[in-house]
Design brief:
Structural class: alpha/beta
Largest sheet: 6 strands, parallel
Number of strands: 6
Bound molecules: 7-thionicotinamide-adenine-dinucleotide phosphate
Number of helices: 16
Amino acid sequence: VTLTTAVELAYLLSAVLFVFGLKKLGSPASARQGNALASSAMLIAIVVTLLEHGVVNWQAIAGGIVAGALIGTLLARRVAMTAMPQLVAVFNGLGGGASALVAAAEFYRLGGPTAMDVTGGVTIVLSTLIGAVTFSGSFVAFGKLQDLITGRPVTFPLQRTFNALLFVTLLAVGVALALGGAPGWAYLALAGLSLLLGILLVIPIGGADMPVVVSLLNSYSGLAASAAGFVLGNNLLIIAGALVGAAGLILTHLMCRAMNRSLANVAFGAFGGGGGSAAAASGDQTVRDVDAEQAALVLAYASSVVVVPGYGLAVAQAQHEMRKLMDVLEARGVEVRFAIHPVAGRMPGHMNVLLAEADVPYPKLLDMDEINPEFERTDAVLVVGANDVVNPLARDPGSIIAGMPILDVDRARSVIVIKRSLSPGFAGIDNPLFYLEGTMMFFGDAKQALSDLVREVKEA
Ligand code: TAP
């Protein structure tokens, strides 16, 4: 058994562990284990790669590991759950940037365009192009999510035509480079234009759609890594990149489907930016508002309560109060379950992570398809900071959220909605649920409202 065979076997083991790790990420109950598996796979891959190739400078590598581990630990501890999408955006951007740099290093090591064979040229061009687009696009997404730049769609006349021309130019430069018929500076042009394309692709997309964009860029960062794997002739990098590419694409597809929008609509729809204009005038409709005591009575005397958490629960960081309310209700013999909509909140799995943080047992979290038939038989539904995911307008073909699958909360006997006002949610449209006869509005910040409910349920 030669060293190469041993290395390839270790890579195979890593690849298998990556696949199992990804599989385990599919359920909150096994996600931690999945993470552990995938990171051990990465450790094996790194160690084996370092052993196989003669390392030029151990100090630089050790320094990188220490600095990376410090920054990673700090970020993991400091970054708030609600800021996770922008953290992931930065990670993707750095991944794409790293792939582009690997390609650049290889380009200059080989000695420029004329020194490359076509295969080498194609992989270097692809890795640079996709890596640089991912890098700049991800940092624009980060800026929008972090409110460093405007979250509104930034558009200008003939934008798509301009982008298309830019893309064609990039392809032309790329082909010329790969075939060895371009001067050395063309490589810098390729990198620069790719960075520009990344920015231009993301600025016309509204801040609220950034999670979908981040997921798509995640997929790009995988493709860039895969291309870098071809550049270096490293099989594991090719496989790992392909896994990231596929996983990111599947997630993007799931998010779009849960919003009933096409990827093209997210990319070119300039959605969620103007705000307000789509809001139907609620005019003279009235709502029934209740205080903590009245709401607590409804919940305390129900036999089963379904809680629908949404973005507002995350913003208010009210998950621990939510858990306390669950405890006091269950102590009275009320059955409490949670209805999880696939795009509740602002990132995939947002509600699962939030409730897991407060140790709400996983079996109490039910998917949309499981819980929807139950609403008709449910005494009371408690909607906490959710809006679009319970908006019955989605059943109206004329609405902008037409066809988005929703939680059929309006079919329950009584519904209590906790939110601060009648303001719309992400989609910017009014919600007829609030005006239904069986609906009670309990206005307030979710955290405060839930802790008032806990107190009142205890006294009920
Ligand atoms: P939204 O429809 O965005 O509604 C959230 C509601 O929470 C708002 O109407 C707001 O009303 C309320 N709220 C805000 N802060 C609050 C606080 N401190 N206390 C109490 N309530 C508060 O949320 P949703 O129902 O979770 O729907 C998610 C939306 O995001 C969907 O349209 C989805 O398509 C979109 N989206 C989701 C994702 C993913 S992957 N999850 C990605 C991109 C887009 P007040 O201002 O009146 O309080």
